[in-house]
Amino acid sequence: MRRSFVASSPIEDEKIRRSRECIQEGVRAGAKAAAVACVVSAVPTLTAVRVLPWAKANLNYTAQALIISAASIAAYFITADKTILECARRNAQYKPEN
């Protein structure tokens, strides 16, 4: 962590604390969305490979893993980004009680 030589004010410390909370909230929401997306994409992918002749012939293990992981990764980043931006909007309207 970088340290500055300028003394920070309590207001700046509060802003930093709130921004870290936003990041943590975004990570948690993203992880939940990724877990849901993993299940939601894995079930039809694995079912299709067992049932559909085209999928059985053309989707090897790597292709299946790529389909499932792409959905999970996309869900994680989209949800984390939306959550962090929403939290930042709330913090922009935050008024300290002094």
* Mean residue pLDDT: 89
Largest sheet: none
- SS field, number of helical segments: 3
From the N-terminal CA to the C-terminal CA, the straight-line distance is 30 Å
Shape: rod-shaped
The share of residues in helices is over 70%
Q: Give me the strand/helix succession.
A: HHH
The whole-angstrom Rg is: 21 Å
What is the quaternary state of this protein? single chain
- The poorly predicted ranges are none
Percent of residues in beta strands: under 5%
Coarse structural class: mainly alpha
Overall number of strands: 0
Brief overview:
The protein is mainly α and 98 residues long.
Question: Topology of this protein?
Answer:
Layout: H1 10-51, H2 53-58, H3 61-92
Helix pairs in contact: 1-3
Question: What features would you describe in this structure?
Answer:
With 98 residues, this protein is mainly alpha-helical. The chain is built from 3 helices and no strands. Keywords: Membrane, Transmembrane, Transmembrane helix. This is Early nodulin-93-like.
For the structure shown, list the relevant keywords.
transmembrane; Enod93; Early nodulin-93-like; 3 helices; rod-shaped; 98 residues; mainly alpha
